[in-house]
Every structure is written in structure tokens, then in C-alpha cells.
């Protein structure tokens, strides 16, 4: 659900800690709110017949590097709410689990809030709210597969007709980020 289009019970919204004040600039607030609502005793409904208008500014007042803040905020949500599944977010952004090079700020207050609210764990969310989410439970490694003779090219998805792998300039997006399944993480 996009973050700008929601209606919420004001009392419940306050009880679950409002929006995370540690989020920077833009991105991730809607994800944090959605997960938190479900884990902490609420629910969300999509009302397809509702009419919502979103008037967007011509020029955003944000920093030009919005991707950095979106990534930072996503990691913050993962660290607070996703338990043993937080590494899915690291995989999505092709970041190492240890020392990803992004300061997400102090999340201790958000973790304390979660504990005080006695929120359910993320496994419950996956089992009851989003069971169709793909789970990478046996991944032992992930990242780009680079050519050792030409460091600027990576293994990539070729034409979809025949699914032939190709070498393509490295860009770090989905088709180049590979999972290596194994017995554990």
C-alpha cells in the first residue's frame, strides 16, 4: 500500500507508535506501518471502490539520492520487524549482512516498542498474512557473479524466449543478483 493513501484509527495509530521518527527523507514508512499493524494486533483492508487522489509535486524537496534513503529505511524496517527474515531485504538490495556500509541509526527504541506491545513475530506474518511471499530459507551465498577475466561484466538473464544466461555490464539489479541454495544460510 502506498504510504500517502491510508485511513487509520487515530487512537490505534498512537498506541502502535505512529511512524518511525528515525526514518530519513523518504521511503519505507508504508512498509514499516503495514508490517507493524499486522504484527501488533491490527489489520489492513484494501478498499478497491474508494476514490483517492495523490497530487504530486513538480519538484521533490528531497535529496537527489533518494535510492540511498529508501535502502536505508528498508534496512531499518528489516532490523526492527523482520526477525530471521531480515536478510531477505539485504539480498534484495545486494548488500552484505555484516557491515553493509549504511548507518540505519539507533533502532533500540523501536525494538523496545515492539516488545512492549507484545507484537507477533515475522514468521506469524508470513504464515497468516502473506503466505505467498517467496522465502529463501536455504541460501548460503548471494550476489553478483562476475567474470574473473573481465571484472566489469556479470552473469545476467538473457532473452526470455530461451532463458540463456549472458554476460552483461554489471549493474547490481535483480537479474544479476543470484542466490546459491544450500543447507543453511
TrEMBL record:
One Gene Ontology MF term: polypeptide N-acetylgalactosaminyltransferase activity
Gene3D superfamilies: Spore Coat Polysaccharide Biosynthesis Protein SpsA, Chain A
A GO biological process held by the record: protein O-linked glycosylation
Keyword field: Disulfide bond
InterPro entries: Nucleotide-diphossugar_trans (IPR029044), Ricin_B-like_lectins (IPR035992)
The organism's place on the tree of life at top rank: Eukaryota
Cellular component annotations (GO), alphabetically ordered: Golgi apparatus
Name of the protein: Uncharacterized protein
Origin species: Junco hyemalis (Dark-eyed junco)
